[in-house]
Specification:
The structure is a single chain. The protein is 80% helix and 0% strand. The protein is mainly alpha-helical and 144 residues long. The chain has one domain. The longest helix has 33 residues. The protein is elongated, with a radius of gyration of 17 Å.
Length: 144
């Protein structure tokens, strides 16, 4: 039986993913300012650097990314609630493999395009998932 501590940790981090994704959809201005601070170290960094049409597209892209994060988070909650908590053979892999795939692709692309700040943000999220996943791996040994 997986200790409840790790299950709750994973639920909490997954809720952070959902809340961040939801904020990107429901509060696009807030998300734009967050990323302006992250990438340009200033409020209004995107607005000052790019023309209005580009900023409209950036807000649209953030909304689409937020919607994807909402879907990803919902999937993670279902996996946590079902196969992960039951220690089913794929329960651990259904969380770990997509997380690692996302991290390598997103972080690699972020570094390639010069947005190292996003790579740091990704690394924080990866660590927040990796700690409980590493701690619970033994409950799935020999099952994947």
């Amino acid at each position: 039986m997986i200790p409840l501590f790790w299950i709750r940790w994973l639920y909490a981090v997954t809720l952070v993913v959902i809340l961040l994704g939801g904020s990107m959809v429901l509060m696009p201005g807030v998300a734009l300012e967050f990323f302006s601070i992250l990438f340009y170290f200033a409020l209004g960094g995107f607005q000052a650097r790019y023309p209005a049409a580009a900023n409209e597209y950036i807000i649209f892209a953030h909304g689409v990314l937020g919607a994807v994060m909402l879907g990803w988070g919902a999937s993670m909650l279902l996996v946590l609630r079902g196969p992960f908590c039951r220690c089913d053979s794929d329960g651990w892999a259904l969380l770990a493999v997509p997380m690692l795939t996302w991290f390598v692709a997103d972080t690699g692309f972020s570094l390639y395009t010069g947005f190292w700040q996003n790579a740091i943000l990704n690394s924080v999220l990866l660590v927040l998932f990796a700690i409980p996943l590493a701690a619970t791996r033994k409950y799935f040994n020999g099952k994947w």
